[in-house]
Amino acid sequence: MDRIAKIKEMLGENPEDNFLQHALGLEYIKIGEEAQARSLFEAILTRDPGYIGTYYHLAKLLERLGETDLAISWYEKGMEAAKKAGEQHSYGELRSAYEELTF
After folding, report:
1. Which of 1, 9, 55, 95 has the fewest CB neighbours in a 10 Å radius?
2. What is the DSSP letter of 8?
3. What residue numbers bound the domain in which 53 lies?
């Protein structure tokens, strides 16, 4: 069974598990299913804005899709959430990607 099938099977038991949805989104990116990944990442952040790691991956995906303004917005939201949560490492990664995109 491939990774996507395994993750989907686990999601069947816990459909709103952020970790599993995030992992599935990353697997979708690997196979070029950007729309699927985007949908999952947006669902995670709508449900749980404190799930910090997803901001980076969603914003990077939007960058690749040419949606620069939206990517910038998600980086900003992610930096705010990381700062609020005291996650300095995540804040630094988000800020670095944000600055790379905006400067």
Report:
1. 1
2. H
3. 3-102
pTM above 0.70, yes or no: yes
Domain count along the chain: 1
Over 80: is that where the pLDDT of 1 sits?
no
Which residue has 């040419």 as its token pair? 66
How is 37-85 classified by DSSP, letter by letter? HHHHHHHHHHH-TT-THHHHHHHHHHHHTT-HHHHHHHHHHHHHHHHHH
Distance CA 101, CA 69 (A): 10
Query: What CATH number is associated with residue 51?
Result: 1.25.40.10
